[in-house]
Write the structure tokens for this entry.
Amino acid sequence: MKDIFKAIEQSAIEIKELIETGDTGKSENQNSTGDTQLKLDIQSDVIIEKLFSNIACVKAIVSEEQEDIISLNKDGKYLIAYDPLDGSSLIDVNLSVGSIFGIYENDFTGPNLVASVYVVFGPRVEMVIATDDVRLYRLIHGKFEFMHTIVLNEKGNLKAPGSTQNCWSAHHKTMVDDIFKDGYRLRYSGGMVPDLHQILIKGGGLFSYPETSDRPKGKLRQLFEVFPFAFVYEKAGGGAIDGYKRLLEVETTHIHDTSACFFGSNNEIQRVLKVYKEHA
Ligand code: AHG
Ligand code: MN
Ligand code: MN
């Protein structure tokens, strides 16, 4: 798996350059989820696919930006699902963005996720690798240096309330209002990677992107957004659910499936479960 981590480091260096100098304009195409692709989405995807295609242990890949599974090495051990540039629409306003990678064995399903990695392109470029633990690396003079492991507190004080608020269910709205009445601080940029990274680094809280009337199955994609972060949050000592059960137990029927998702410290995850179970 080390070859994969090295390739991700290299992709981060190349995508950093692309973000700094690339054209943030729209392409003519849409991806499988119907999002209009930015030129940077496609160029980041090309960088990552090229790097992964040189690694013998990679059997196949799935990209947010491509319709189908891409087979690489029939004897490879790992399957990688990735979002080459998450939050790309934030680049033109100079907010932080990221890349997300889920490393699977046997098939692209939650229970078969064996590691996850994400890269944050912000004032500093950082990479987080989750295997048995969660380790933070920072790009310094062209090299990723290990900084420290990441562990969530049992309870935090940050709340990232995603999705269109006028499409929230009544019980979701009441729950979020109550969380803010308890003194939580609102932290939401619209970029999943920096929004979830912030809660991890600051020790805890709750990020939610729930089922809504306009998106009954949520917006965020299982294989390369939701499951990789669910793995990170659980390995950091927190939790990740769809409102009712662990996200890593949610069934995948299509490689671009989405899921409602909540990521947070254990106290906040229990709070969501209680509210959602009462309204199931
Ligand atoms: P992507 O840029 O890969 O399509 O992902 C964007 C996602 C995610 O970064 C973020 O949490 C979510 O879109 C924000 O959605 P809303 O704009 O609906 O809040
Ligand atoms: Mn994304
Ligand atoms: Mn993306």
The mean pLDDT is 97. The longest strand covers residues 78-86. Residues 85 and 99 are 5 Å apart (CA to CA).
